[in-house]
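Repro case for the chain-ordering regression, as requested:
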Amino acid sequence: MALLAFHNITKSFGPLVANDDISLSLEKGDVIALLGENGAGKTTLMNILYGHYTADTGHIEVDGKQLPSGQTDAAIKAGIGMVHQHFTLAENLTVLENIMLGTESLWSLSQKQSAAKAKLAKMSEDYGLKINPDARVADLSVGERQRVEILKALYRDARVLILDEPTAVLTPQEADSLFKTLKSLTEQGFAIIFISHKLHEILQISTRVEVLRRGKIVGSVATIDADRAMLAEMMVGRKVERPSLEAMDCGKPIVRLNNVTLRDAGRKVSKVPKLDQVNLTIHQHEIIGIAGVAGNGQSALADLLSGLSIPNEGTFELLDVPVTQASPSNIVRRGVGRIPEDRHSSGVVGEMALWENLISEDLRNAPVSKAGIVIDRKACIERTNDLIERFDIRCEGPDAETKLLSGGNMQKLILARALAPEPAFILANQPVRGLDEGAIAYVHEQLLAARKRGAGILLISEDLDELFSLCDRICVMYHGKLTQPYDAKSVSTSQVGLMMAGQDLRQTQDQMPEISNTPVKESSHAD
Amino acid sequence: MQIEPREYVAPWRIVFAPFAAVIVSLGLGSILILWVGASVSEAYLLLVKGALGSSFALTETLTRSIPLIFTGLAATIAFRARFYNIGAEGQLYCGALAATFFGTGLIVLPPLLMIPFLMLVGALAGGAALAIPVMLKTHLKVDEVVTTLLLNFVILLFVGYFLEGPLKDPMSMGWPQAEPIIDEGLFPSLVDKSRLHFGFIFAIIGSVLCWAMMRFTVWGYEIRAVGLNTSAAKFSGINVNTTVIRTAVISGGLAGLAGVSEVAGLKGYLTLDISPGFGYTGIAVAMLAQLNPLAVILSAIFISMIYVGADSMSRAINIPTYIADVLVGLSVLSILVSVMLTKYRLRWR
Amino acid sequence: MMDILDILISAGFWAATFRIVSPLIFGTLGELICERAGVLNLGIEGIMTMGAMSGWMWVYMGGDLWTGVMFAAFVGAMFGLLHSGFTVYLGLSQHVTGIGITLFASSLSYYIYRMLLPDATTPPKIDPFHPYPVPFLSEIPIIGEALFTQTPLTYLALLLVPMVWYVLYKTPVGLAVRMAGENPMAVEAQGINVLSIRTGAVMVGSAFMAVGGAFITMSAFDAFFFGMINGRGWICVALVIFASWRPGKALIGALLFAGLDALQVRVQQTAGAVIPYQFFLMMPYVLSIVAMVIMARKASYPKALLTPFRRGERT
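-- result from build under test --
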C-alpha cells in the first residue's frame, strides 16, 4: 500500500483546467520531483493535497485511507507538511510562536512554551536545523525562514514533506545544504515531493520525476533513466533553445551610479541601509545582471533607477545628466524603459482597459492628451492597435480589461509600453518571473534586440541560469552592497553563490585562484 | 462556500445591481412595518405617494435631492481615488458657513455674480475643510477615515460658536441662527409655489461635469488609476499625493456646495440643523450609484424619495420616521453585496 | 495655573476621569481585538448606540442590570457577526461595511426606541448601576476615593485590560488572532480556519463595544438620548492607533484622554467666560486627531489589516 496516492485529481479555475486527471503515488523514502513550467499545475496539485483547494473530482489516500478534501488540519494530522513557496510566516512574531500556532487546543488557557522550546531544540539537533526560537521572523534571513518552515512541518510530525520551489530564493550553497537535510530526512523514512523547474536540481535529488504540462502528467521516469535534454523536452513539449549572447563591444556609458546610499524612510532606522555606497556603470550594448538573494537591496536599486526613490547620498546620472532628484515621469521622459518586478501589483491597473495601461507613462504629452487635460481617446486607440500588432499581444482588442490577459500577454503589454519608445536604458526587474517558456523566450529576445540596437540593460534576477545566459557582466548584491561587475564568462556559479552569501571574493582570492578579476574597462569608482 | 470571480460581467448585472439592493432593503424594512401592524404594501404605497403622488410631493423630493446629489458626488469622487472622505457633513457646514459669512451683507454684488461668488467661497471652504485630513494622510500617513469623521464634530461646534457669537442674528430671539442671506445671493425658484430652487440645475451640471472629468480627462484617469492600484499608478509616473490632494479638494468643494445650496437656495439662513446627516447619506447615494457621477442623480432622487415619502407614511400609519434612515443603512449594506455578486459568483459545496 | 493644580488633586476630578474612561476602554479594547485579527470595525459608533439602547431597554422592560449588560453584549456580537459576514466571508470593503453598519445600527436603535416608547416626551429613566465602594481601598485619600468608589462596570472595564492582554499574548487562541492579523495564510497553513478566527474576534470585539455603549445609559446616566454616543466610537478607533494595538497602551491612552476631558469640563467652569464653551467641547475630537498624528508614523499596523482572506483563491 502506498504511503500517499493521488487518484484522478481534476481541478479547474473557470475555463482553465489546472489539474487534469492526475494520478500518482509515493512510498517511504521516495523523493518525487514534480517538474513543470510555470502554470503547469504543480502548486495547484499540492494545494489540493494540503487542503487549501478542493479538487473537482478525484481523491487522495494516505496509508490507504481517504483524506477528507479541503481540510488543511486533516492533511496535517495525516502527516503531510508543506513548505510554501511564499513562506507562510508572520514576520512580527517569533519563531516559536510561528511554530506553535495550531499545535495546542485553541481553548486552553495557557501555552506550554517551555515544553515546546525543548521539543524544538531536540528537533533542531536531530535534523541539523539550527534556529533561535525567540528570534523575530522579520530578523531572519531567507534561508533561516525556510528552516522555520521545515521545522514547522516536522514539529507536527509530518511524514510527507512538500517543498514548493524551495531553492528559488537560496544561494547555490544554501541549496546544497538543503539537499543534505532532505537526504538525511529520506534516510529516516520521510517521503518528499519536490517542486521545481530547475533540471539539475531535480536530477541531483529526486528518485523519480513526474512531468506536468498544462495540468496533465505527460511523463514519469525514474531519475536514473533521465537526462536534462529529455526532461526539458518533456516539460515544454518541444526542443528548448536558449538565446545566445552575440559578442558586441560596449559603447559609451549610459547610467552611472556614484556612491549611492539609500536608507529606510520613517523613524525606524535599520542598521543596514537599503543601498550602501553603490557604484555602477552601464554602457550601450551591454546587459548587466544583478544576482542576489531576495531582500538584499535589489528592489531598492530598482526603485532608485525607476525614479521612485531619491538616494540619501551619491548621484545618479543618465546620459551624463544628473537625475538624482528625478521622478518616475521625469526618468521615463529622459529615456528609461522600466519592467517592474510584479506586473500585477505595480505593472498594470488590472481593472483598466489595455489602451489605458499603454498610455499611463505619458498622460500629459501629445498625442495622448490635448494640452495635458483631455485624453485623446482616438489617438490612444490607434497607438494601442499598433502596439498590439508589433508586440503580438493576444487580446480582444484595445478596450479589453487588462486583468483578463494571460501572464505572458500582460508582460508583453508592459514590454510594449517600456520598449516602444526605444529607451536608452532598460531596467528589467525579474522580467520572466512566472512566465512559461514561450513567453520567457519572447522577453529575452526583446531584451537582446534592445541590446543590439544600443540600449544599456540592467537585469535583476534570482535565477542564476538566466543571468549567465543573458548577461555580459554580473554584479552581486548583498546587504545593500553591490560588488564590482564580473565578466559572465569568467566567473562561476559557485563563486557568485558565495558572493550572494556575503563572502568578499577579493579577500579570499588565494583560495579561489580561478577567479579572473575582469577587465572592466573603467573601474566603476573612477567615474 | 466558494467565491469565484466571473470572467465576464454582463452589463445587465451592473444595471440590475442597485435595483436588487433596493428590493432587498425594502424587503428587510418590511419587517419593521409589520411590527407596527401595518400592511406592507399599503405602507410602501403611502411612501411612494408621499414622495411622488402630487406636484408638491414631487418638488419636495427633488428639492431634498439637491444636497444629496452634491454630497453623493463628494463621496463618489473621493471613493474613486480610494480616499475615504466621511467628512462631507462637516464640509457641508463649512460651505454653508462661508456662504453665510460673505452672503449676509459683507459683500454685495448683482445676483448674476453674487450667486456664483457664494458658490465659489462655499466650495473653497468645503475643500479647505478637507485639506487638513488629506495633508495629514499624504504627508504623515494619518488615516483619513477617523480624522474626517472627528472633524465633523469639531466643525459643527465651530459653526455653533459662530451662530451664537459673531454671526448671530440679533432678531432670532435667542435661537442659534445666522442673519439671512441677502436677496442678491438667493437662488431663484425653479417651479412656482414650491421650494424647488435653481440648486437642482447646479447639481445636475455638477454631476455632468464630474462624469466628464472622470471619463475624458487626465485628472479623471489619475483618480481612477490611483484608486484602483496605487502602486501601479505611482510606478507609471502619476504623482499620487498631488492626485489625492486634488481629489480631496474637489470632493470637499462639492460637499461645500451642498451647504451653499441649502442656505442660499432652501432655508435662506444658516442654522445648526440645516443637514439631517446629508453628508453621511451621501455615502449611501454614492454606493447605490456604484460611484458613477451620472447615476448619482438618480440614486439621490431615490433616497430623497424614501425620506420625503417616509415622512408622510409615518404620519399616516404612525411609524417612526427613523424607518427612512434604517432603509438607507440597509441599502448601503445590500448594494455592497449585490455589486459583489456582479463580479463574483458564490458556489456552495 | 493654581486652579489646574487644585483640580488635579481633587478626588472629584479623578472620579470623573474613571467614569469617562470606562466606555472608552470597552470600545477601544473591542476595536483593538477586531483590528488585531485584521478587521477594521467602523461599525463601532452604531454598535455602541445599539448597546446603549438595548441594555437600557432590557432594564426598562423589567430585566435586571447584569442580564441587561449581557443582552447588550449579545446584540453587539450579532452586529459583529453581520460585519464579519460582509468583511470576512464575502471580503467586502471594511470601510464601507463599517459605515453602513453604523448607519443601520444607530437608526435601528432609534427606531426601536421610538417603537417601544412612542409617547415618551421626557426620556424615561431606569435605576442604573450604583457606585460600589471597595472596602478599605476606597478609604485611601484621593486615589482610593476616585478609583474604588466607581460602579461595577468600571471595575469590569479595568479588569478587562489585563485579561485581553493575557488572552492575546499568552493563549493559543490569542496567538491565532494575532497571526490572523499579520498573515492569514500562515494561520490557514497550520490547519486553523482564518475565517472563524476573524469572525470570533469581530464578534467578541463588537460585544465589548456594545457594553461600552451600555455603560453610558446604565452607569454614567440612567436614560437613553438620541445621539448620545456622539463620536465616542470614532475616538476609540483613534485611540487604538494611538495605542499601537497594545491593550496596556490603550488603557494609558484612554486615561490620558479621559483625564484631559475631565479637566476640560472643570477649566471650562472657571474660564468659560473668556473662551466660548464650544471650543472646550471640541477638545476631545481635536485631541484624538492630535494623538493620531503623533503616533501615525510610529504605528506598526497589523500587516493584514483591511486585507480580506479568501480561501482557495488563486493569487
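Ordering looks correct now. Chain B touches chain A at residues 2, 4-5, 7, 216-219, 221-222, 224-225, 228-229, 231-239, 349 (CB under 8 Å).
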